[in-house]
Design brief:
The chain contains four helices and twelve strands, in the order E-H-E-E-E-E-H-E-E-E-E-H-E-E-E-H. It is α+β, with helices and mostly antiparallel strands. The radius of gyration is 17 Å and the shape is globular. The model has no long low-confidence stretch (mean pLDDT 91).
Length: 227
C-alpha cells in the first residue's frame, strides 16, 4: 500500500537522548541468552498502530536476526518497491503465517529462508517479543535470534531489494531514536525513526531510514534489554 506522505520529510518532534543506552556487556550473546531465559519485569512501549486498512487482522512473524560478529549487528532488508504491503520500506525478514506453520517461530524461520536464504542451521532462537499490530492489520510476532556470521545471503529479488546490517549498539541507543507526527484524515499519527548512515552493497555511503513498525519493534527490544 503506497504511502501518501514521505516519512523522511516529516519534522522531528523529539529525540530521546535523555534515556540511557543499553550497556555494552548487555549486548553480548551470553547476556542476551540469559535475558531471554530469565526475563525481567518490563512493558513494551508500542503494541499497535492506528488502523488505516480494512482487511481482516492477519497473523505474521518476523525474525530479528542478531549476527554474531565482533559486535552484534541486526540484519535488515529493504523491501522492493512493487510489493503490495509496505513497499520500499526497511524491515526484518518475515511475513504472514501460513497454515502449515505450527507457530510464530516457524513462520519467522521459513520467511527468513525464503526471503534471504538464511538456513535454520545458522540460527539460534532466543525467544519471542510481544506482538505488534501494524496499521495495515498484521499482528506481528518478532522472534529474536542469534545468527552465525558464516551464512550466505541469497535474497529473493522479487521481495528484497537489499540486505544490510546495523550495529545493535547503535539501535539500542535512544539518542538515535527520533519521534515524528503527521495528521492524516484528521487523525494525528506518531511514529519513530532510527536513521543510520551506512554503506551500501557497493561500499558507497548511504542513509538508511528505519521507521514505523520496524523502529517500534526495535524500541520494544530496547525497553526489554534496558529493563
Amino acid at each position: 500500500m503506497p504511502l501518501s506522505f514521505n516519512p523522511q520529510d516529516m519534522p522531528v518532534i523529539g529525540i530521546d537522548d535523555h534515556l540511557p543506552s543499553v550497556a555494552t556487556p548487555e549486548l553480548r550473546a551470553t547476556a542476551l541468552r540469559q535475558r531471554f531465559q530469565q526475563p525481567p519485569p518490563w512493558k513494551p512501549e508500542s503494541v499497535d498502530e492506528q488502523r488505516f486498512h480494512a482487511r481482516e487482522p492477519t497473523h505474521a512473524a518476523v525474525l530479528v536476526p542478531l549476527v554474531e560478529r565482533e559486535e552484534l549487528t541486526v540484519l535488515l532488508t529493504q523491501r522492493t518497491d512493487h510489493l503490495a504491503d509496505h513497499p520500499g520500506q526497511i524491515s526484518f525478514p518475515g511475513g504472514r503465517r501460513e497454515p502449515e506453520d505450527p507457530d510464530a517461530t516457524a513462520t519467522a524461520l521459513r520467511e527468513a529462508r525464503e526471503e534471504i536464504g538464511l538456513a535454520e542451521t545458522h540460527v539460534d532462537v532466543l525467544g519471542a517479543m510481544p506482538t505488534y499490530t501494524t496499521g495495515t492489520g498484521f499482528i506481528v510476532t518478532p522472534v529474536v535470534a542469534l545468527v552465525r556470521p558464516d551464512f550466505d545471503v541469497q535474497a529473493d529479488p522479487f521481495e528484497v531489494a537489499e540486505v544490510f546490517e546495523v550495529p545493535l549498539a547503535f539501535l539500542m541507543n535512544p539518542a538515535h531514536h527520533r519521534r515524528h507526527a503527521i495528521e492524516l484524515g484528521g487523525v494525528r499519527r506518531e511514529f519513530l525513526s532510527i536513521p543510520w548512515q551506512g554503506l551500501d552493497s557497493e561500499g558507497r555511503p548511504r542513509r538508511y531510514f528505519v521507521w514505523g513498525a520496524t523502529a517500534a519493534m526495535l524500541r520494544n527490544l530496547y525497553r526489554f534489554l534496558a529493563a
